[in-house]
Amino acid sequence: MTDPADRPHYKRVMLKVSGEALMGDQGYGLHPPTVARIAEEVKSVHEMGVEVCMVIGGGNIFRGLQGSAQGMERTTADYMGMLATVMNALAMQAALETVGVFTRVVSAIPMDQICEPYIRRRAVRHLEKKRVCIFTAGTGNPYFTTDTAAALRASEMACDAIFMGKNGVDGVYDKDPRQNADAKRYDKISYDEALSRNLKVMDTSALALARDNNLPIIVFGLDQPGGFRSILAGEGPHTIVER
Ligand code: UDP
Questions:
Q1: Cβ contact 93:133 at 8 Å
Q2: What is this structure's pTM?
Q3: How far apart are CA 77 and CA 65, in angstroms?
């Protein structure tokens, strides 16, 4: 008999991982053991029978805003950022397939030799066939972020929730917990409160999109071993953002 705590509460979920979560302690780029650890987290949830979508950022390699701050034209810098997310997606695909999880990388910008172009119905079919779908190249548009890509694809895929896997923090706090010992974690907060108080859940356009589509956002620590599985079973520290 399955332990009730192991029963999934969700059928299809979106996991957003920032690029920085893949760099370990290196300060830049990809740290293969860290990527492998996150792949194990995803595998353990996939084994619960949950359909998993992923969006991975690119901030460990390149961020458009950094490029434009250094005088580069913003849209070009953003395209470079989107390409960075493709490298991360391929690294995650390789790590997932090493542990026996079938995946598809699906790109908002067609690059046929590397991965599939995004076609909604095809992506849905992959999920039904229990393949993890990694949505890459963000939304395919400059001036957006991978948080927005996560909210957009989660809406299109009819995910039950977006899981924001964070590094070094296990939820949404009233102030920065790294600088304030008395910071308090919210168990639950509304979209509007998170927006009006400018709390660091995800960027504002992404949060507004999640709100408008009534998609719950669960913020949790992806650096806790077994953290993703526990959160899906309704355990462990987290913050849920909903109406
Ligand atoms: N980006 C973009 N459009 C998108 C998604 C991403 O232009 O739809 C670019 C943008 O320059 C961004 C970079 O890709 O800075 C990396 O994405 P993001 O900053 O969201 O990564 P994360 O912070 O999650 O690692």
A1: no
A2: 0.96
A3: 7
